[in-house]
Amino acid sequence: MAAPMLRGCCLARRGALACIDGGSRHGRGAAIGCRSSGKRGRSSVAQQPLITAQKSGKGEHAWAAVVGLEIHAQISSNSKLFSGSQVQFAAPPNSLVSFFDASLPGTLPVLNRRCVEAAVMTGLALKCHINKKSLFDRKHYFYADLPAGYQITQQRLPIAVNGSLEYSVCVGKKRSQVITRTARIKQIQLEQDSGKSLHDELRSQTLIDLNRAGVGLLEVVLEPDMSCGEEAATAVRELQLILQALGTSQANMAEGQLRVDANISVHHPGEPLGVRTEVKNLNSARFLARAIDSEIERQINELENGREILNETRSFDCKLGCTIPMRDKEGKQDYRFMPEPNLPPLLLYDTASLPPGADPQQVINIDRIREQLPELPSETREQLVQQYGMLPEHSFTILNEVGLLEFFQNVIKETRAEPKKVTSWILNNFLGFLKQQNLAVNESPVTPSALAELLNLLDRKAISSSAAKQVFEELWRSKGKTPSQIVSEKQLELMQDGEALNQVCLAVMEEHPQVYRSAR
Amino acid sequence: MLGRTLREVSAALKQGQITPTELCQKCLSLIKKTKFLNAYITVSEEVALKQAEESEKRYKKGHSLGDLDGIPIAVKDNFSTSGIETTCASNMLKGYVPPYNATVVQKLLDQGAVLMGKTNLDEFAMGSGSTDGVFGPVKNPWSYSKQYREKTKHKAHGENEDSNWLITGGSSGGSAAAVATFTCFAALGSDTGGSTRNPAAHCGVVGFKPSYGLVSRHGLIPLVNSMDVPGILTRCVDDAAIVLGMLAGHDPKDSTTVQDPVKPFTLPSLTDVSKLCIGIPKEYLTPELSSEVQSLWSKAANLFESEGAKVIEVSLPHTSYSIVCYHVLCTSEVASNMARFDGLEYGHRCDIDVSTEAMYAATRREGFNDVVRGRILSGNFFLLKENYENYFIKAQKVRRLIANDFVNVFNSGVDVLLTPTTLREAVPYQEFIKEDNRTRSAQDDIFTQAVNMAGLPAVSVPVALSNQGLPVGLQFIGRAFHDQQLLTVAKWFEKQVQFPVTQLQELMDDCSSVFEIEKLASVNFC
């Protein structure tokens, strides 16, 4: 499907950037810090959410940043929120589009049970109140990848409200101090994803792919309880781990399954909140913190220079390293919300309120879903600390790397080595190698079994610790060989036979008489 | 044969008096002869003949699918029909061929029904005359009836004869005309504010609007989702019940349909109405109501009373707010529902390609008529953040009051309400177009739209001919999901009044055999 080029699309607007003036990024302007950040050299006060800006002659002037997040997580489900089309990443364009997804007239939405269950489970894991009655609304706007001209969402009465997300930040010189913070969750709502627009500048066309149109999303709204990019990024990471543990979303940012919009403002503590901007489409874990910090920096700089912050939508340009305005201000949207008349209220039950004789296929029991809640990341980390004597900060690293926990557990299963030893090897050597080669855990040439075997050799003192490192390096290069094979090929065994050792020593002395003599 | 009812012709098919193909060909030839009425937008001749052929095979093998097998039907052109153009009488959907069947269409086809074609309507069903579609207005067959012509001899002949034709009412005027001219035995209409009942009344046929949620809307191109219901137009109440029996029930593709299983309907023949309580809403006695219709209405009430039914005056106090409230809710949903017609995925697309926005604007300007655009504009106004509370929310509250009015009346022991369907009989087209669509809709939906706001079943039954020789219909309104009870009462009433069949022989001499007078008994009711 193709449409003429969208007027004022982001690419075309790059020429008219109202970006940060260079000064702010080179030391003159506001310094930026955050209560949890210790790594940033310019950071001011470690424990205070205050940002100090030096204004020549005027002394210190403190700024506080306020960050709230809207996170869209694609629900992991076989079919879309209101239609039977399959959900799949990177399928050929427009190959997963039902009549409803293409908004053919006369088609009606039919709610996907799995998506509702995923929303309830996510709500429970985030300590939300689950609304036993929630409603669907239409949010109207014209855009080429929104075929119906409206998105079905939950504006008035969402499925879950008033939860909280706990996340931990590591502070201190060696980042060894773990501090737990809480961001309140305003609500979780079910809504439809849009399609994708691909702008072909050359032919001045917009190409539309509706594969994503109608995929179920969980919109998680975090209250403005964060104060810097790192906090926001850490909160997002924690949410991501929770969603993955629940299986309610794959939450893979690279595949667009987790998308973040941030509401950002700055103010002087004790004064009313400042005008906020919305930075849209923070779709890369790498740039999330940077984008937020750069916007905070920009706002402070604007205010310091006597300019105003406009209530506008911006996007982060990762090449420029700053945010840029996105939409025309004149086109301020009125979404003309209206109840979705084709969907009756969504009713949920608990065991107490379950109508007698209800068809289990027709009702959703919140208590049943609560029973099915898996272990959450915070519990897993606690378990690692308790069971293996792991340091809390190490438990974070183990969970934060995709697949590392499973790798760790598999090694533990197969080795007699001390858990602390395993942790140390995995965090220092294994992870180090992965980072160095820019590999993910599941791309590692070293299998858990191989590492377990290596650690066993070390544990029964068959090899020395320096030989172990040599074997480990060899494992990396020669895929398929076992540690024992490498040890014997390279003759790295420690010699246990005293007589043989004696013979070796004598032979060395005989071969090097001068050295022997001088040493004596 | 064509003048028979669905039930009668179904029996004839079963007994082999006629074959489905013969029946289909007769209807097709009549469709051609009545083409000037403009009842059909698309005549699906090939498809119909093929379906008839298949039906014939089944009959030969003795494997008939039931009462509808081989029965010619017509479908309003706002129901999606797989492989058959579905236009909504709009430039926007000219050439649009849906890839799927509406559930109601599929159900009819599954029963062996033969689809003759798609019938004319007001653009996107927005109107009460069937005059505002892009394919031109539908002409009321009664304009050419012996009954009407005799009464209006002095002006019917002469040079302006052709401009004196009457409107069918709407928006399902094509379906009503198709049934009234015997080109099919049942037709689907849609009813949002009276669009099935109004033309039924003007064309002298039965027009039934089922309870909201009883019949699937999947595939019906929406006007107002919360009020739309597929309607059934037939020549008698029994036929409407047969069709309803085929259509009713839960549809997994329409979440607003009832979950409870619906059993097939067979209407009993009432002999005793003494246990019935008929309510006459006093608010429906408006100054605009023609004295003739009013007198037929009270005669009908007297008829019930004389047969032993309890007839009482009841009050629906919020009736006067209904039409305004309907306007706000209708246009708001229209604004939303029409948003999808942007020229991208299907339908009309303009030649402008400066930008997507310019393309949208020109496409919608070219695609929709003034009525549709006007409703979109008002609807968007009502939905604006600043207006939402004052208009949409208020209208929703009033809607609840109106629905409660009915609930209260039914809770007080009333079984069925009896009201006029329209203010007067059909008017000439020239007369009708003196007022704009909005004014006409407000007048013509006055007795019908409150039922849609409350989701109740209602049926218009032809009662008698007016002094001008034109049909007049009365409306029965039932409790929600008591459709069967409602139709049972309507059937009893129908039997009492013996409404005459339209006589079109003068016009179509060669079809005279078609219009054998089977029921033309007396107009003794008047």
Automatic annotation (TrEMBL), chain A:
<dbReference type="GO" id="GO:0050567">
    <property type="term" value="F:glutaminyl-tRNA synthase (glutamine-hydrolyzing) activity"/>
</dbReference>
<dbReference type="GO" id="GO:0070681">
    <property type="term" value="P:glutaminyl-tRNAGln biosynthesis via transamidation"/>
</dbReference>
<dbReference type="InterPro" id="IPR006075">
    <property type="entry name" value="Asn/Gln-tRNA_Trfase_suB/E_cat"/>
</dbReference>
<comment type="similarity">
    <text>Belongs to the GatB/GatE family. GatB subfamily.</text>
</comment>
<dbReference type="Pfam" id="PF02934">
    <property type="entry name" value="GatB_N"/>
</dbReference>
<keyword id="KW-0067">ATP-binding</keyword>
<feature type="domain" description="Asn/Gln amidotransferase">
    <location>
        <begin position="406"/>
        <end position="518"/>
    </location>
</feature>
<keyword id="KW-0436">Ligase</keyword>
<keyword id="KW-0648">Protein biosynthesis</keyword>
<dbReference type="GO" id="GO:0032543">
    <property type="term" value="P:mitochondrial translation"/>
</dbReference>
<keyword id="KW-0547">Nucleotide-binding</keyword>
<dbReference type="Pfam" id="PF02637">
    <property type="entry name" value="GatB_Yqey"/>
</dbReference>
<dbReference type="InterPro" id="IPR014746">
    <property type="entry name" value="Gln_synth/guanido_kin_cat_dom"/>
</dbReference>
<dbReference type="GO" id="GO:0030956">
    <property type="term" value="C:glutamyl-tRNA(Gln) amidotransferase complex"/>
</dbReference>
<dbReference type="InterPro" id="IPR018027">
    <property type="entry name" value="Asn/Gln_amidotransferase"/>
</dbReference>
<comment type="subunit">
    <text>Subunit of the heterotrimeric GatCAB amidotransferase (AdT) complex, composed of A (QRSL1), B (GATB) and C (GATC) subunits.</text>
</comment>
<keyword id="KW-0809">Transit peptide</keyword>
<comment type="function">
    <text>Allows the formation of correctly charged Gln-tRNA(Gln) through the transamidation of misacylated Glu-tRNA(Gln) in the mitochondria. The reaction takes place in the presence of glutamine and ATP through an activated gamma-phospho-Glu-tRNA(Gln).</text>
</comment>
<dbReference type="InterPro" id="IPR017958">
    <property type="entry name" value="Gln-tRNA_amidoTrfase_suB_CS"/>
</dbReference>
<protein>
    <recommendedName>
        <fullName>Glutamyl-tRNA(Gln) amidotransferase subunit B, mitochondrial</fullName>
        <ecNumber>6.3.5.-</ecNumber>
    </recommendedName>
</protein>
<dbReference type="GO" id="GO:0005524">
    <property type="term" value="F:ATP binding"/>
</dbReference>
<dbReference type="GO" id="GO:0005739">
    <property type="term" value="C:mitochondrion"/>
</dbReference>
TrEMBL record, chain B:
<dbReference type="GO" id="GO:0070681">
    <property type="term" value="P:glutaminyl-tRNAGln biosynthesis via transamidation"/>
</dbReference>
<keyword id="KW-0436">Ligase</keyword>
<dbReference type="GO" id="GO:0005524">
    <property type="term" value="F:ATP binding"/>
</dbReference>
<dbReference type="InterPro" id="IPR004412">
    <property type="entry name" value="GatA"/>
</dbReference>
<comment type="function">
    <text>Allows the formation of correctly charged Gln-tRNA(Gln) through the transamidation of misacylated Glu-tRNA(Gln) in the mitochondria. The reaction takes place in the presence of glutamine and ATP through an activated gamma-phospho-Glu-tRNA(Gln).</text>
</comment>
<comment type="similarity">
    <text>Belongs to the amidase family. GatA subfamily.</text>
</comment>
<dbReference type="InterPro" id="IPR000120">
    <property type="entry name" value="Amidase"/>
</dbReference>
<feature type="domain" description="Amidase">
    <location>
        <begin position="25"/>
        <end position="145"/>
    </location>
</feature>
<dbReference type="GO" id="GO:0005739">
    <property type="term" value="C:mitochondrion"/>
</dbReference>
<dbReference type="InterPro" id="IPR036928">
    <property type="entry name" value="AS_sf"/>
</dbReference>
<feature type="active site" description="Charge relay system">
    <location>
        <position position="76"/>
    </location>
</feature>
<feature type="active site" description="Acyl-ester intermediate">
    <location>
        <position position="195"/>
    </location>
</feature>
<dbReference type="GO" id="GO:0032543">
    <property type="term" value="P:mitochondrial translation"/>
</dbReference>
<dbReference type="GO" id="GO:0050567">
    <property type="term" value="F:glutaminyl-tRNA synthase (glutamine-hydrolyzing) activity"/>
</dbReference>
<keyword id="KW-0648">Protein biosynthesis</keyword>
<feature type="domain" description="Amidase">
    <location>
        <begin position="166"/>
        <end position="487"/>
    </location>
</feature>
<dbReference type="GO" id="GO:0030956">
    <property type="term" value="C:glutamyl-tRNA(Gln) amidotransferase complex"/>
</dbReference>
<comment type="subunit">
    <text>Subunit of the heterotrimeric GatCAB amidotransferase (AdT) complex, composed of A (QRSL1), B (GATB) and C (GATC) subunits.</text>
</comment>
<keyword id="KW-0496">Mitochondrion</keyword>
<keyword id="KW-0067">ATP-binding</keyword>
<feature type="active site" description="Charge relay system">
    <location>
        <position position="171"/>
    </location>
</feature>
<protein>
    <recommendedName>
        <fullName>Glutamyl-tRNA(Gln) amidotransferase subunit A, mitochondrial</fullName>
        <ecNumber>6.3.5.7</ecNumber>
    </recommendedName>
</protein>
